[in-house]
Design goal:
The structure is a homodimer of 157-residue chains.
Chain A lengths: L11 H7 L6 H12 L4 E2 H8 L8 H14 L2 E5 L5 E5 L9 E5 L5 E4 L3 H19 L1 E14 H5 L3
Helix pairs in contact in A: 2-3, 3-4
The complex binds manganese (II) ion (2 copies) and zinc ion (2 copies).
The structure holds a DNA duplex (30 and 30 nucleotides).
DNA sequence: CTCTTAGTGGAAATGGTTTTCATTATTAAT
DNA sequence: ATTAATAATGAAAACCATTTCCACTAAGAG
């Protein structure tokens, strides 16, 4: 029944078409959710947020779309160790390049952007050197710090 | 049948006992395999290598032991994106602090140790600042570069 | 040696993700 | 607008790495 498309279709539509993909209601709905969230959503999280407005979109479609988005380089797929993949739009309106602090106790995730400039410099240097030495075309990197948040650190016997 | 223990039991035995764990045949076998490998083994990989010599040790024990080893900080648990966890002994005889290059095409993993000194410096600085700002007790970090190895880069469409 | 209980293996359960397949919807061509 | 070609979809089933269960075994303190 909800067959009417949003009048303002963001730039992803063109990006999808450019990659030879069709632009569908489901993909629009998923990107809508991703772009509005500041969190690190699981496939099911996204399904749950899409469902009220678009009850016909199945979990399978969520997974398939997330795969495509990850391949296209629009979305980051993370494993934070809680048994499900988590996704985050890369080029979210205001979201900038960042990395993560992960609590091994409660799985809380903190985005941080400190030292990004210094990091970028080092990463660029490493990337150049490593890609030559190991014949690798490097496309991205992750940096993650693991530890315990204040709450979890306290309650650790 | 194989009830005789190796005469030379490495230092892990003491480490295990110190943490209140018992020292068992299975744990010895698993550490033996891990310490002899330079690779990034899955639980099943380890099971397959333990099995010929110790056919009575089950996959369940492998998982349980790897959990303990990870908690104790003796083993790194990685997700390289191929659907199974991969493990690597941290304090392996000659193995030093290193990070990984991961091929998104064939999942080849390259260990690298370049720039470790510069990285250590930056990481230390970040760790200090981040742990204060976000009230996190940071215990470890990972850095991974993703891309395509020469083989996979060629055969890409 | 005896006793307590941590550790174990095999089978079954779990649960996130993928596959299958008949149906639907998008797109380009008419 | 209609049509044709086929990409995309949803529901159910399959998949499969990992976890749980539970009766049994063995480590190790006393
Ligand atoms: Mn983030
Ligand atoms: Mn390694
Ligand atoms: Zn926490
Ligand atoms: Zn490759």
């Amino acid at each position: 029944m909800p067959g009417i498309r949003l009048s303002t279709s963001p730039w992803w539509q063109a990006r999808f078409r450019g990659c030879g993909y069709r632009w569908t209601l489901g993909r629009e709905a998923i990107l809508e959710v991703l772009s509005k969230s500041e969190e690190h959503l699981s496939a099911e999280d996204i399904y749950l947020r899409v469902h009220p407005k678009y009850p016909n979109i199945g979990l399978t479609t969520i997974y398939r779309t997330l795969d495509i988005l990850t391949d296209m380089g629009l979305v980051w797929k993370f494993d934070f160790g809680d048994g499900r993949a988590r996704y985050e739009l890369i080029e979210g309106s205001k979201k900038m390049h960042h990395h993560h602090l992960i609590c091994k106790g409660c799985n809380r995730i903190v985005d941080y952007t400190e030292f990004i400039e210094e990091e970028k410099e080092l990463v660029k240097k490493m990337q150049n050197s490593l890609s030559k030495k190991y014949n690798f075309k490097i496309t991205s990197h992750i940096i993650q710090f693991y530890g315990f948040c204040s709450k979890c650190d306290k309650q650790k016997d």
